[in-house]
Design a protein that fits this description.
The protein folds into 2 domains: 215 residues, 3-Layer(aba) Sandwich (Rossmann fold), CATH 3.40.50.150; 51 residues, no CATH class. By secondary structure, it is an alpha/beta fold. It is built from 11 helices and 10 strands.
Length: 280
């Protein structure tokens, strides 16, 4: 994998799709990027619980008859949660394998429609009161990211749109190779929203992602040691996550706050929730 600064590079969408089809055999963990470091289900559950607190708060005004769109639904964790609360839920993903995992998870849910397609062009009927975009803009070039946000403003003209996107602390960084992605700063995401005529209502750091990213960085560091490099990733990821959880007041609470206070670029990636609404 290689990377460079700036957003002039165009992503190869076929490479992006191929990556996610390959990752779909571990759909549950891959949806949360926990698969390559062998992090256990408990890590994913921990992150999801912290993220859910934010989404619950921001969707609190949606009633039980609301229509909610889960765009880039992956294995369907959020789709399942929304199905328990709202009248109509539509989950969209471009990956055959990811959508198959979502269908298995949501079998028997009569108020859910799962659709395979490109987020920019897939046919979607009706108006939505809530939209969750869980890490999709980062796989789009700038023009397409703006176009998607414009479309969301049309699909949810009176609704609430939640973005959850990974990025860097400043500027833009493009990763090429077999995993292609654009990491944008929070300021860049806010600029995309403004260009799409969406108003940023609230921004919140994703604590669940911050905790998991500490584990990711430490697993990557540990596996540079030759004896561990030869081991399966789960042999490192599982014990390390249990250690972090056992020492959470320091490792998962105090350490991230200190990192932010001293403006350290570690772990390299960050993640934020942004709440958007269409401008009046």
């Amino acid at each position: 994998m290689s990377g460079h600064r700036g957003d002039e590079h165009r992503l190869d969408y076929e490479v992006v799709r191929a990556y996610w089809e390959d990752a779909a055999h571990e759909a549950e963990s891959a949806s949360y990027m926990a698969h390559e470091q062998g992090l256990p289900p408990g890590c994913v559950e921990h992150r999801f619980a912290l993220e859910r607190a934010v989404v619950d708060r921001w969707f609190a005004g949606l009633g039980p008859t609301a229509s909610v769109l889960d765009l880039g639904c992956g294995a369907g964790a959020w789709t399942e949660l929304f199905a328990q609360r709202y009248g109509r839920v539509v989950g969209v993903d471009a990956s055959v394998g990811m959508l198959a995992a979502a269908r298995r998870r949501l079998a028997g849910q009569g108020n859910v429609e799962l659709v395979r397609g490109d987020a920019l062009t897939v046919a979607l009927d009706g108006e939505f009161q809530g939209v969750l975009l869980g890490g999709l803009l980062m796989y789009l070039d700038r023009a397409d990211a703006v176009a998607l946000l414009v479309r969301l403003g049309q699909l949810a003209p009176r609704g609430r749109i939640i973005l959850r996107e990974s990025g860097v602390r400043a500027g833009v960084e493009v990763q090429t190779g077999t995993y292609q992605v654009v990491y944008r700063s929070l300021q860049e995401y806010e600029a995309l929203a403004a260009e799409a005529a969406l108003r940023v209502v609230a921004v919140e750091r994703n604590r669940g992602y911050a905790h998991m990213e500490i584990a990711v960085a430490l697993v990557n560091l540990a596996r540079r040691w030759p004896p561990l490099a030869r081991r399966d990733a789960t042999a490192v990821g599982g014990p390390l996550w249990r250690l972090l959880r056992a020492t959470a007041p320091v490792t998962l609470d105090l350490v991230p706050r200190a990192i932010e206070a001293f403006r350290l670029d570690w772990p390299h990636l960050t993640n934020h929730f942004l709440l958007l609404e269409a401008r009046d």
